[in-house]
Protein: Large ribosomal subunit protein bL17
Organism: Nocardiopsis ansamitocini
Amino acid sequence: MPTPTKGPRLGGGPAHERLMLASLATSLFQHGRIKTTEAKAKRLRPYAEKLISLGKRGDLHARRQVMTKILDKGVVHELFTEIGPRYENRSGGYTRITKVGPRKGDNAPMAVIELVEALAAPAATTAPAPAQETKAEDTKAEEKSAEAASEETAAPAEGDAEAAESTEK
């Protein structure tokens, strides 16, 4: 059981805080990025990362543990089928908090918390390499065609120069 936080809660009491964090986590998993206050974002980060770790496990017990916290079955399904497998090669750090400045109405410090993009799979990194080679081959082909064109334009110019010299003599 996690140690309760010291100091004031987010909202009225512990039950309200649990529901607020569950709602924020649901929105984060639905949209991938949410804008909230810095305090809520800092409290949401470990909560969401634990849920993503359960999503990575993918077994029935983990799904039931997540269902006790997030009540939307569609979001739980997305967590286990899309978000969890996306981070299977990552051991933590699934979220990023970026400070965006104060809120206009009450000057509360705001932040954006978002899911970090997963590392590209090795198959995905090898796919762009042939494209780069073809670009290099294209530039080589363009250089060859440019050289051939310059030779063609240079040859008649030499011929014209020789013809001009012969007419001058």
Notes: The radius of gyration is 31 Å. The chain has six helices and three strands. The CA atoms of residues 18 and 93 lie 22 Å apart. Residues 121-128 have pLDDT under 50 and may be disordered.
